[in-house]
């Protein structure tokens, strides 16, 4: 059994219509809600035979939302990771759950990281954007509503340079840390990350789960660029993995509840959640 510490960081904040996250019609006509833009850090237990530091997603470079407003309280990775005493250079592996701008935009900020994404995610987004008659249309066009074309072009250069590892399917990317492909769910090749801990499996879901409510009531969100039926299958698999009495062990992509269901503290502009501490790990909570 491997043990890991897990922290989840809010790196920016936004306001989104309730039904975009919670689903239509159950969350329709309920106004706007505050959401965190988030990513998570996985660190092997002190004294591990093969220590590793895995970052799951990395945030955006710019803060423009598809709704036309800007995200608030934006913090870049060097500021975010400093909250637990690390720098971007300390990251060994960067897992991108998918290539939407708010999860993959800062992929090049980690000089020593092996960068991992599902092959189908990259290749199908590349094909979509290459086929667009106008690549400059911006986030007002559905195909580009969650994409930054310039970042994908830079990503392509990194792929061609051998900087990116395109994986296929379910892959263990470090001892006790496994990527699971959920094809045609939130996006073409979204994936979630299973993490072994002393208290049982935890999951960094990316946008395979927006809110705990999606899993709890088995209701997909109003915005996705994939297949809602496949998302329903994802929710059931995650419920079975962690147990319906322990859904807090799943970290959704954009839920302020993360910072209520876990010990947390405010650092700088945004909160940090202490999701799990491995044996021997020191809490940063003061």
Question: How would you summarize this macromolecular structure in one to three sentences?
Answer:
By secondary structure, the chain is of the alpha/beta class. It has helices at 18-22, 77-81, 101-104, 119-131, 149-160, 212-216, 228-242, 258-261, and strands spanning 4-17, 32-44, 53-56, 93-95, 114-118, 164-167, 171-174, 177-183, 189-195, 202-204, 250-251, 263-267, 270-276.
Overview of the structural elements:
The protein has 286 residues and is of the alpha/beta class. It has one domain (4-276): Ribonuclease Z/Hydroxyacylglutathione hydrolase-like (Metallo-beta-lactamase, Chain A, 4-Layer Sandwich). The chain has eight helices and 13 strands. The strands form two sheets. It has an eight-stranded mixed β-sheet with strand order 6-5-4-3-2-1-13-12. A hairpin with an 8-residue loop joins β2 and β3 (53-56).
Oligomer: single chain
Q: Which stretches of 5+ consecutive residues score pLDDT under 50? A: none
Average pLDDT rating: 96
Describe the strand arrangement of the main beta sheet, using strand numbers: 6-5-4-3-2-1-13-12
